[in-house]
Design brief:
CATH architecture of the largest domain in chain A: 3-Layer(bba) Sandwich
Largest sheet of chain A: 7 strands, mixed
Strand order of the largest sheet of chain C: 8-5-6-10-9
Helix content of chain A: 10-25%
Radius of gyration of chain C: 18 Å
Oligomer: heterotrimer
Structural class of chain A: alpha/beta
Distance between the termini of chain C: 58 Å
Strand content of chain A: 25-35%
Number of helices of chain A: 7
Radius of gyration of chain A: 22 Å
CATH class of the largest domain in chain A: Alpha Beta
CATH class of the largest domain in chain C: Alpha Beta
Strand content of chain C: 35-45%
Largest interface: A-B, 53 and 60 residues
Number of domains of chain A: 3
Helix content of chain C: 10-25%
Number of strands of chain A: 28
Shape of chain A: globular
Distance between the termini of chain A: 55 Å
Number of domains of chain C: 2
Number of helices of chain C: 2
Structural class of chain C: alpha+beta
Number of strands of chain C: 10
CATH topology of the largest domain in chain A: FAD/NAD(P)-binding domain
Chains: A alpha/beta (412), B alpha+beta (489), C alpha+beta (120)
CATH architecture of the largest domain in chain C: Roll
Largest sheet of chain C: 5 strands, mixed
CATH superfamily of the largest domain in chain A: FAD/NAD(P)-binding domain
């Protein structure tokens, strides 16, 4: 089969992919192709109709579709080729991408391949929740697509498991559309969504949030009839005797997002077990030279603004790679130390400034973040609070770095 | 007066559908009554998908005879009916001298039953077959295989329909009135059926139906088995089914079995079900499977969990002793016109066609059956994009652009396949019906991407109101209606 | 009176503690920017919210188009405004910023389209 050659092949036309493509074009890379499986670009934002996007990237608060449209229009103005209705099936180690669409099967090889496929939702099966398997159990994103894009109401009496942001947003959405949201149950002792969403999506509508609680049984053979809720101990084990049945016809799951990098499974791309996304260096280059990754397919972000900004940083590096033929080697490892769940990037050069992204493992107050190298403090920053729900990002300046010795990031 | 059927089959599972298909070789008017919304929703679909070899069962029993016969013919059956099938072979591994003794006993029994190719092998041979299998030695059974139990049942039913059999879904048998002329008036939730012959292949309900048809006394014990379905990423570590040496009572501990599609099933366990619909997963059983499954399969990792399910084996027991009995296949002179199958559990999938032929023979012994000259044994399944190579994919899309539109990303199922599944010969119109015919929603995202497309397409293709779209059984509604602007028509 | 607020103005979600008597604010602590102080004052006197929902679109490539308000409305009026929006529908094509209802419920806010939906 004929293989089309391009300078850059971008997989995914959401807020990461479009931002990367635009930035590549602006950096002088003319031959950029975006592959998008939907009929329209814009990604998941098309169904995120609530506002609150864009404050960091555009300095104003927008709804998801408006935020996306800014990139869609800019990509159009710049004449970027977006192949919609085109689903990528696989990526190989030689940077060949196989994609399928009604127009045919095609193979594209990029001098650079940009992975910006976003993430998917964790399911009931992944959590292994006991009980029956009736209709009426939806992940929050699926419910959001039905309600916001397809004009279909999925239920009347609703229980939400997990306090992820999409679950909180859907609690408000379903309430506004006439459903009765009986409560949000979170297994952790703290919410996993942003504080402002607890405030404006739950508190505003008197929807109770029950921390350290989870669904331990599901009832109903055809349509959901109810769930059993149990309190959990510190090890997340249900506490016997705390079971309570809550009648409902709908269970919405907002129990985590997972980078959707599946197409690269056959390519040998090295994946970080903590982020479930690729290992990258400060250029967002993966273990396969010329393959770059950013946005939610790399690590799940809290805000779309950071997704786009990260993709733009990726594109700057990828443009340099395409022009120069290589990028500075990144032999130094960045390690996640005390209270740090994961870090991005996992490798750096030690010769350039880089953006460090991380999440803490548990909520902390009055903390100090330190980056150390060779027993020496490279960077110290104080935070009044640090939440697992929030991604922390900061610039690590080159002048503080040595060219040898791994880095360690701790929050204490 | 309604039309009279020659044969009405109660229960459209793998056995009922096999009987329907085998009866359609003759000039008969046949109907199948299935109380569920599809043919593979109960025992026939809820199992390991194993093509058994037949070494486990006591020599001379129907279980042994039918399993061996069904196993040996299955390459031809799978080709004829287009059923995904792999003759993988199976390893039953042992560690101790006691294990070795039991394996040798099985080998002797298997050989007596007519199972071919059994041998006890050493570690070196095991390493050639599957290095990840534990154990010091094993019994190697090359005849064992894995198949898609949904599609096998569907294939039998579709081939029966192709040859003139009627299927009535969501049609539950409620009782019988024997007519003076010896015919049977069967009452169902969808009206009455008058028939000369009635076949009981009601699976879990076979003892109840048997009594309703005038043959009381059978006792079915519902034994539930729970499973974990693991991601295809775990499937790369499980090439052939590996079982532990059996326990003294000839039962097996939890094992890991690859599926024909590349996933891994961990299970089943064995517990008394509450009733014949008790398909709930329980925390205790899940914990048990994780613990025992980890011993047999070292990749029993949480990150591979994609789904749980449970099945129920209708075990016929001796009411006095509780001991599990052989399959019942009978036609009693004192209850004329009734072919009765009771307690068809494992190896029922393997035994379905051999049982069906014997059921037909019981009728043929009592009346002359005239061959159906138009009978066509061949059934074509939906061509799967996932199984094609690049050239085949390109050609398929060129011929039908819907083959280029990926609906289910995880399992690479295209719109073309979804459309074929929606317009299936049995008239199954549920999301689960599409699922078992195409594998859409069976991947790691569990429908997170494709379910919305499937429901939309069901609506478009069938013109049904969204409120009438069901996940599976009657009552499993998915939508209350439109969010805005009244109902979506 | 003392009360702690979670600021919803930006994703930082500052925890802000205010001491006040009626609508008279004595002190505000915890805000990392001036907007937080304004937010708390507003919350104490006249809490306001924006809302987002959808309306049916005729002849479009999608059955729904998303809408929001171009400025916040009093929190207590959210469901009255929803009732008013629930009566709306629009013809494709739609454009971002298109006003589909002016001065909803006399509250001074307009209902605006937030997504382009092409006609089919």
């Amino acid at each position: 089969m004929n293989v089309e050659r391009h300078q850059a092949v971008v997989i995914g036309g959401g807020p990461a992919g479009l931002a990367a493509a635009i930035q590549l074009k602006q950096k002088g890379i003319d031959d950029v192709v975006v592959l998008e499986r939907e009929h329209r670009t814009g990604g998941i934002l098309r169904q995120c109709i609530h506002d609150g996007f864009g404050l960091t990237r555009f300095g104003e608060t927008l709804s998801g579709p408006e935020y996306a449209q800014r990139f869609v229009e800019q990509a159009e103005e710049l004449g970027i080729t977006c192949l919609t209705d085109t689903t990528v099936l696989s990526l190989e180690a030689d940077r060949t991408v196989t994609a399928s669409g009604p127009a045919g099967l095609r193979k594209l090889r990029g001098d650079a391949v940009i992975l910006t496929m976003g993430c998917r939702e964790r399911t009931r099966g992944a959590l292994a929740i006991p009980g029956s398997r009736p209709a009426g159990i939806y992940t929050a994103g699926v419910a959001q697509e039905y309600i916001n894009l397809r004009n279909l109401m999925v239920g009347r009496e609703v229980v939400i498991l997990g306090s992820g942001d999409i679950g909180l947003i859907m609690a408000r959405r379903m309430t506004l559309e006439g459903a009765h949201v009986k409560g949000v149950y979170e297994v952790q002792p703290y919410p996993s969504g942003l504080p402002r969403n607890i405030e404006q999506c739950l508190n505003d509508y008197n929807i109770p949030l029950h921390l350290s609680h989870t669904v331990t049984d599901i009832h109903g053979r055809e349509r959901l009839e109810g769930v059993t809720i149990s309190q959990v101990d510190e090890q997340f084990r249900p506490i016997p005797g705390t079971e309570e049945r809550v009648d409902c016809d709908t269970l919405i799951l907002s129990v985590g997002l997972i980078p959707a990098g599946d197409i690269a499974n056959g390519s040998g791309l090295a994946v970080d077990g903590r982020t479930k996304g690729a290992f990258v260096d400060e250029h967002y280059q993966t273990s396969i030279p010329g393959v770059f990754s950013a946005g939610n397919v790399l690590h799940v972000h809290d805000l779309v603004d950071f997704v786009s900004l990260e993709a733009e940083a990726l594109a700057s590096a990828a443009a340099e790679y395409l022009k120069e033929g290589s990028l500075p080697a990144c032999p130094l490892e960045v390690k996640a130390g005390a209270n740090v769940g994961h870090v991005i990037p996992q490798h750096v050069s030690g010769t350039r400034s880089f953006t460090l992204s991380l999440r803490v493992r548990k909520p902390l107050k009055g903390v100090t973040l330190t980056v150390t190298q060779n027993g020496r403090e490279v960077l110290r920053r104080k935070f009044p609070k640090a939440l697992p729900a929030e991604m922390i990002q900061l610039n690590v300046p080159a002048e503080k770095l040595e060219t040898e010795g791994d880095l360690e990031v701790s929050v204490q | 007066m309604q039309q009279i059927y020659d044969v009405v089959i109660i229960g459209g599972g793998v056995v009922g559908s096999a009987i329907a298909r085998e009866l359609s070789r003759y000039k008969l008017r046949i109907a199948v009554l299935e109380k569920e919304s599809d043919v593979c929703t109960q025992t026939s679909g809820r199992n390991t998908g194993m093509l058994h070899a037949g070494f486990l069962y006591k020599t001379g029993t129907l279980k042994a005879i039918c399993a061996v016969e069904g196993n040996q013919e299955f390459d031809k059956v799978a080709a004829e009916l287009d059923v995904p099938f792999k003759r993988t072979g199976k390893l039953i591994v042992g560690f101790t001298d006691e294990d070795r003794q039991r394996l040798e006993n099985f080998m002797a029994r298997g050989e007596a039953n007519g199972v071919k190719g059994l041998e006890i092998i050493d570690r070196a041979r095991m390493d050639e077959l599957d290095p990840s299998a534990g154990g010091n030695f094993a019994m190697w059974c090359p005849a064992s295989g894995i198949l898609d139990p949904f599609l096998y049942t569907i294939a039998l039913a579709e081939n029966a329909v192709h040859n003139g059999v009627e299927y009535h879904l969501n049609c539950a048998f409620t009782g019988e009135t024997k007519q003076a002329d010896g015919t049977h008036l069967l009452h169902t939730t969808e009206g009455d059926f008058l028939t000369r012959w009635v076949v009981n292949s009601a699976g879990l309900n076979s003892a109840v139906v048997s009594e309703q048809l005038g043959i009381p006394g059978y006792v079915i014990k519902p034994v539930k088995g729970e499973y974990f379905v693991l991601d295809k990423l775990a499937g790369q570590f499980a090439k052939i089914p590996v079982y532990p040496a059996p326990n003294p009572d000839n039962t097996f501990d939890t094992h890991a079995t690859p599926t024909v599609d590349g996933n891994v099933l961990v299970g089943p366990d064995s517990q008394l079900a509450r009733d014949f619909q008790d398909y709930e997963s329980t925390q205790a059983a899940m914990d048990g499977l994780i613990e025992s499954g980890s011993r047999m399969f070292k990749h029993m990792d949480r990150s591979y969990f994609i789904r749980n399910f449970a099945g129920i084996r209708p075990k016929r027991i001796d009411p006095e002793t509780g001991v599990v009995q052989d399959f019942v296949l009978e036609c009693r002179d004192e209850v004329p016109g009734v072919v009765n199958l009771v307690g068809i559990e494992s190896p029922g999938l393997t035994s379905a066609l051999p049982l069906a032929r014997r059921a037909v023979a019981l009728i043929a012994q009592r009346e002359k059956l005239e061959p159906n000259p138009d009978f066509d044994p061949v059934r074509h399944g939906i061509r799967r994009f996932a199984d094609m190579n690049d050239a085949e994919r390109a050609a398929a899309i060129e011929e039908n652009p819907d083959y280029g539109e990926i609906f289910c990303r995880c399992e690479k199922v295209t719109k073309a396949e979804i459309l074929q599944a929606i317009h299936n010969p049995l008239g199954v119109h549920t999301v689960n019906g599409v699922k078992v015919r195409t594998r859409a929603t069976m991947g790691r995202c569990q429908g997170g991407y494709c379910e919305t497309r499937i429901t939309e397409t069901l609506h478009k293709e069938l013109g049904e109101d969204f409120k009438d779209i069901h996940l599976g059984p009657e009552g499993s509604w998915m939508f209350t209606g439109a969010v805005k602007g009244g109902d979506r028509a | 009176m003392k009360r702690t607020f979670t600021c919803i103005i930006c994703p930082n979600g500052c925890e802000i503690t205010a001491e006040y008597e009626g609508t008279d604010v004595r002190s505000i602590e915890g805000a990392t920017c001036p907007k937080g102080k304004d937010y708390v004052r507003q919350e104490l006197t006249d809490p306001r919210r924006n809302i987002a929902t959808s309306i049916p679109v005729e002849g479009g490539e999608l059955p729904l188009v998303s809408v929001r308000l171009d400025r916040p409305i009093p929190k207590k009026d959210i469901f009255a405004v929803m009732d008013a929006i629930n009566k709306l529908h629009v013809k494709a094509p739609t454009t971002i910023g298109q006003v589909v209802l002016s001065d909803v419920c006399g509250l001074g806010a307009n209902v605006i389209i937030t997504k382009p939906v092409a006609a089919v």
